[in-house]
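Severity: low
Component: inverse-folding endpoint
Summary: output formatting inconsistent between runs
Steps to reproduce: submit the following structure tokens with default settings.
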């Protein structure tokens, strides 16, 4: 990306600043602003969430944006956008996001998140794109391109391996380099190389022992030197571990500002010769560069058209809607409706939709469509719409009476539509799901309606895979995911055939969580998570192990049908151009997602059964066909060789599979790839997870032992204070105050946000208190507390704690 400002400006501004001011630039001015350089006419620039809509807190808003966020278009969440497999659409949505940010004078939008979905229970999966790195990386790049086309910076997050919420600020993710490179880091690499984001955000967690904010290999060797990233790196909110180490490692900016919490440590490190001033200058220069870049794009006159953005959100929601099953009941267009005089619409989400996830990405929508109103308008007077709630939309609970009403409505109707899914409290940033089931109330409702024998369409609103044991008894299942503010009208479009269900799963739906090798190693320990499943994530597992998914990666039905014809490959060394013709053989217009997987036929390096290496979405009128060309390059055939520190291609035969899902291969060809590389052989693990010896071999070192609870330190999570009587008293003091604050600011019916804060309060490290609290209590007080807890100071301080506790209890 061309730089729009002369480098000399940055140098000039920097050289005029005393050390103290340069250090100040390394942390934010407040929760959402960077420190500007007023002497050089550079005002503080603003950053704001988030991936599917702008969450700009108005003055006085709380961190979760529950109060006071400026209304903005709530586009479908990342999981829904990803199911469109449509890079052009994501660029279009990105442009709208960038535009809205610009109108609100927000210089950088904090998204997209590209972390791979390692396990379907990840609480934040709704905010991430896929289980596959190529798909996630390309879609993220498309979104970034759109955002930045409008002169707003994007922030690619969270680098790296932030794949669970449980203890996210302290866990050490233990993962071997091959797995890291071939999965998670490939997604980031594609997003950086193709999207050129202005900024990148580090993850909260540790990666093989080092906090991501302090990780020189990740931020310097890989991100900047190998992938060519030339922007600014910021910490996640409250996630900077050690300002001195992080500055050395290349984490430029601490966010939010913590009132100079670390400034003294940085100054002292410079004075002691432990930190090179050049490292400070390097990061300060990036803050200045970003501020100049933002100033160049500032436009006080910018506007956007709310209706147009709403229409785009509606189109995007339909494009990401996945038709999982259909016996022909859908679409409900005039023909089937001819025999139907009543449609029973069952489920409170039809009136109060679940349309986005909870946490930092929660947007205040400009308006909100609901299915009941939209479907009523679409059906017009062709059929009567009878609505019954079936359950409570906040808790998901049902009653005998609600079930009886739903059954009665279904019995009277020609078609029943049940809208079910996950209420907000089931999934959010801040905690993981404990199971993959629907709420009992929803399952009971679905079973009762199915038992009436009326053809039943089930619509699901949720952010991540569910278990659907009744699936073969439903007439049709629509996975609508979280459709954003226009999800209701988009669903009415899809149900009636005014729009096609354009989505294909960007993740696998397992039959049971326990099928997955990652399951035993997901959220399994508060301090350490071991990726013993290696590469066997999602379809890489199902297809390699022969353990079928309930609904495979890439799956999604259409209202029309397609054939694949005339597969052709052209080869130039390791570059292979694959061409195939796709023909719409049905009677409706529709789009198909052509998926290209590569399988190594004979390989001395153990690999998953097949991997996605290309895809394209084509829209076709009935009878129309299109020639689709998909390029493969050297990397499409390569594996990462840890010993030789390189991507290597082993000579041999590779199958090229053209498919409509990871299990629905339509055409295949074999190519012979020549290569001089001699990859180090890798044998398959004896089971689907590595045992201690195998895991140690993958890691190239002993499997680390999780940190002990004691001695306490800055990164001790608050929950661990319970280990001593004094600690327990301090924890009570801390949590009582925090819980009171949550009760005061978060509405009672917003259970997801309340749960998120509960997790944060007990799982956050002590260090996060000043970092999230604007510098209070000061870090020195945290250090003193740690000393006290470790028994270095007793007596008087203990008395003080008793007094504080007594005061609180009064
Ligand atoms: C989240 C980030 C978000 C930031 C600011 C953090 O808790 O992890 O994704 O951008 O808060 O709201």
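Observed output (run 2 of 3):
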């Amino acid at each position: 990306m061309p730089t729009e400002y002369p480098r000399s400006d940055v140098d000039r501004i920097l050289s005029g600043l005393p050390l103290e001011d340069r250090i100040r630039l390394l942390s934010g001015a407040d929760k959402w602003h960077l420190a500007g350089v007023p002497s050089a006419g550079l005002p503080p620039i603003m950053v704001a969430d988030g991936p599917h809509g702008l969450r700009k807190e108005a003055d006085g808003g709380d961190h979760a944006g529950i109060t006071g966020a400026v209304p903005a278009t709530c586009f479908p969440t990342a999981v829904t956008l990803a199911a469109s497999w449509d890079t052009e659409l994501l660029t279009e949505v990105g442009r709208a996001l960038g535009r809205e940010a610009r109108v609100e004078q927000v210089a950088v939008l904090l998204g997209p998140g590209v972390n791979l979905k390692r396990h379907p229970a990840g609480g934040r999966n709704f905010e991430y794109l896929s289980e596959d790195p190529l798909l996630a990386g390309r879609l993220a790049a498309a979104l970034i391109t759109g955002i930045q086309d409008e002169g707003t910076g994007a922030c690619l997050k969270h680098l790296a391996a932030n794949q669970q919420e449980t203890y996210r600020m302290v866990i050490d993710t233990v993962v071997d380099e091959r797995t890291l490179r071939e999965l998670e880091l490939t997604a980031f690499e594609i997003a950086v190389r193709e999207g050129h984001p202005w900024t990148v955000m580090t993850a909260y967690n540790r990666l093989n022992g080092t906090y991501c904010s302090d990780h020189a290999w990740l931020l310097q060797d890989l991100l900047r030197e190998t992938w060519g990233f030339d922007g600014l790196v910021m910490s996640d909110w409250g996630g900077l571990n050690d300002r001195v180490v992080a500055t050395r490692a290349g984490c430029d900016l601490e966010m939010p500002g913590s009132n100079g919490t670390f400034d003294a440590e940085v100054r002292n490190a410079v004075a002691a010769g432990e930190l090179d001033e050049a490292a400070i200058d390097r990061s300060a220069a990036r803050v200045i560069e970003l501020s100049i870049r933002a100033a160049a794009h500032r436009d006080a006159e910018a506007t956007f058209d709310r209706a147009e953005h709403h229409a785009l959100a509606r189109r995007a929601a339909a494009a990401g809607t996945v038709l999982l099953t259909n016996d022909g009941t859908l679409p409900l267009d005039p023909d089937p409706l001819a025999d139907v005089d009543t449609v029973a619409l069952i489920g409170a989400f039809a009136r109060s939709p679940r349309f986005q996830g909870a946490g930092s990405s929660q947007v205040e929508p400009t308006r909100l469509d609901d299915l009941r109103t939209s479907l009523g308008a679409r059906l017009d007077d062709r059929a009567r719409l009878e609505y019954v709630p079936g359950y409570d939309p906040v808790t998901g609970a049902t009653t005998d009476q609600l079930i009886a009403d739903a059954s009665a409505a279904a019995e009277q109707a020609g078609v029943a539509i049940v809208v079910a899914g996950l209420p907000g409290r089931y999934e959010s940033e801040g905690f993981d799901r404990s199971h993959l089931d629907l709420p009992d109330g929803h399952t009971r409702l679905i079973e009762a309606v199915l038992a009436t024998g009326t053809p039943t369409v089930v619509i699901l609103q949720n952010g991540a895979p569910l278990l659907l044991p009744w699936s073969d008894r439903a007439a049709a299942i629509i996975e609508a995911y979280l459709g954003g503010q226009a999800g209701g009208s988009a669903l009415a479009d899809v149900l009636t055939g005014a729009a096609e269900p354009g989505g294909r799963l960007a993740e696998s739906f397992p039959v049971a969580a326990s099928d997955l090798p990652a399951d035993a190693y997901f959220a399994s320990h508060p301090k350490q998570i071991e990726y013993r499943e290696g590469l066997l994530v999602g379809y890489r597992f199902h297809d390699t192990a022969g353990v079928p998914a309930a609904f495979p990666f890439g799956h999604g039905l259409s209202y029309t049908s397609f054939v694949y014809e005339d597969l052709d490959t052209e080869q130039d060394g390791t570059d292979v151009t694959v061409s195939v013709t796709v023909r719409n053989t049905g009677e409706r217009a529709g789009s198909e997602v052509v998926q290209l997987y590569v399988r190594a036929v004979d390989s001395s390096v153990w690999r998953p059964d097949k991997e996605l290496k290309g895809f394209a979405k084509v829209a076709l009128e009935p009878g129309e066909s299109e020639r689709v060309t998909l390029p493969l390059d050297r990397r499409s055939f390569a594996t990462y060789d840890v010993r030789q520190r390189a991507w290597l291609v082993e000579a041999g035969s590779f199958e090229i599979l053209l498919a409509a899902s990871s299990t629905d291969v339509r055409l295949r060809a074999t190519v012979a790839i020549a290569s001089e590389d001699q990859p180090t052989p890798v044998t398959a693990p004896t089971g689907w997870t590595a045992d201690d010896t195998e895991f140690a071999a993958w890691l190239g070192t002993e499997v680390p032992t999780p940190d002990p609870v004691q001695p306490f330190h800055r990164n001790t999570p608050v929950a661990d204070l319970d280990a001593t009587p004094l600690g327990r008293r301090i924890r009570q003091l801390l949590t009582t105050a925090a819980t009171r604050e949550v009760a005061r600011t978060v509405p009672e019916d917003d259970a997801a946000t309340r749960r998120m804060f509960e997790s944060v309060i007990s799982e956050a490290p002590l260090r996060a208190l000043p970092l999230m609290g604007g510098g209070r209590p000061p870090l020195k007080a945290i250090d003193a507390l740690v000393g006290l807890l470790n028994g270095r100071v007793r007596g008087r301080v203990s008395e003080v704690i008793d007094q504080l506790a007594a005061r609180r209890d009064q």
